[in-house]
Structures are given as C-alpha cells and as structure tokens.
Inverse folding.
C-alpha cells in the first residue's frame, strides 16, 4: 500500500518503529497529522470497495474526555479532496471516528454526536439524493420534537447512517478491525464484535488515518458551524500492525 503523509501547521508523522501522528500545542489555526492513500487521486480512482478489510493496533495520548478535535481511521471519499472537482461530494465513510466537544454530528437520535465510535454514512446514493430537495422542509419540521423523532430514523436509513459508541480506554493499546462488505459492515475491537450493520457505503473510498484540532457542528435543527480548537499541549496517535486489503475467505470479515 502506497501511503502518503500530510502534515499541516506543525503536524508531524513518523513511521519508525511504528506510525506516530502528532499535532502540537496551538493557540489558533488548523493543524493536522495524516496518513492516506488517495492524495492527488480523483475519487473514481480511489482504491477500496466493498470486500475490503482494515486491521491495526492503536493508542492515543489522551483519554476520550481529554482529547481535543477529531481523529480516527477507516475508509472515506474525502468530500473536499478531489483536485479535479471544484465542488464537494456528499460524504461516504466507514470508520472508527473520534469527535470531542463541541463537535456535534447528526448521528444519534438523542444526545450529541461526539465521542469515540464506530460509524457508517452513505450519502452519495440515489436514495439519499432524492431527499436533498426536501432539506428546507425537513429542517423546518425538525424544530418540533414530535416530527424530529419520526423523521430522523427514516433519514438515517436514506443516508445509511449507523453509529455505536466505543466504551474503551483510548489511551491504551487496542486492536481494531473493520470489514466492509457489500451486505454490510462489521467493527471489532480486540477481536470482539462491537457493531454490525446492514449499511454499506458505495465505493470507491480511500484509506485515511488522522488526528487534528477541528470541530464541526451539524444539528438536526439546522445549526451549522465549523472551526478549530486551541490545544494546551501536544496530542498524538500511534498505529502498529497496519494492514489494509481484501477480505480473506474464512476470516471474521
């Protein structure tokens, strides 16, 4: 696998003796340390489709209550990352994802969409596209709790959204496995099945592993805000035994 390194505003990536992605203490601005396999590729040339498997061991410098910004690893379509297209794509991803406060992503029906979790989203489908023209009406109806509780489970289906928190210590070594199949996705932690869903994002997608200091707020009631967080100390993620490839016959995937 031909991995590429992205270091922004003090972010630093090293690969010996294991992958170490670190971002610095910072007062303002965006910082990122990232490894991926899609830099400079058009989305149609991304490498991975259903039938792919990701396995690695990882630990973070801080616990979920102390880490700031976002971090994770998995497959996605880099909605803003195609150098040949002047507009973003609808997001598609299957990954282990961390988002600190004040991040708030429209994943769960109740409570903020933040923390350390396994998730899928497949907004780049025809089914999802049919919903987009109704977005203004949906946001209006979502101001009312009774409509919100009725609408959101259906919209989750349209956008292939699944979400399950991971109740483990992020600052300790754990093994993570992700099996992305045409019939659904499976997430394992320390070889135990954590989450299984019938949702399967459409490929091709690219592999990504990153840590940064950004936040994104997108609520069901139409609130949208993006920004960066001040970091009082460096933060890092370490990755070992990284393997990405096809699902092997007879494996857990």
């Amino acid at each position: 696998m031909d991995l590429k390194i992205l270091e922004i505003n003090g972010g630093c990536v090293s690969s010996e003796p294991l992958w170490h992605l670190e971002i610095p203490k910072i007062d303002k601005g965006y910082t990122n340390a990232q490894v991926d396999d899609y830099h400079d590729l058009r989305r149609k040339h991304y490498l991975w489709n259903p039938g792919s498997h990701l396995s690695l061991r990882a630990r973070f410098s801080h616990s979920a209550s102390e880490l700031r910004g976002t971090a994770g690893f998995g497959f996605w379509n880099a909605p803003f990352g195609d150098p040949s297209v002047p507009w973003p794509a609808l997001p598609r991803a299957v990954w282990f994802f961390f988002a600190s406060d004040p991040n708030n992503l429209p994943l769960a029906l109740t409570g903020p969409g933040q923390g350390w979790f396994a998730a899928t989203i497949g907004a780049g489908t025809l089914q999802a596209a049919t919903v987009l023209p109704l977005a203004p009406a949906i946001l209006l109806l979502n101001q009312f709790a009774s409509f919100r509780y009725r609408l959101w489970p259906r919209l989750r289906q349209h956008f292939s959204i699944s979400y399950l928190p991971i109740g483990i210590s992020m600052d300790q070594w754990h093994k993570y496995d992700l099996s992305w199949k045409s019939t659904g996705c499976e997430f394992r932690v320390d070889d135990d099945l954590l989450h299984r869903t019938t949702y399967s994002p459409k490929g091709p997608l690219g592999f990504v592993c990153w840590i940064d200091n950004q936040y994104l707020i997108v609520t069901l009631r139409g609130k949208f805000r993006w920004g960066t967080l001040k970091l009082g100390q460096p933060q890092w993620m370490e990755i070992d035994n990284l393997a990405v490839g096809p699902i092997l016959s007879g494996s857990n995937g």
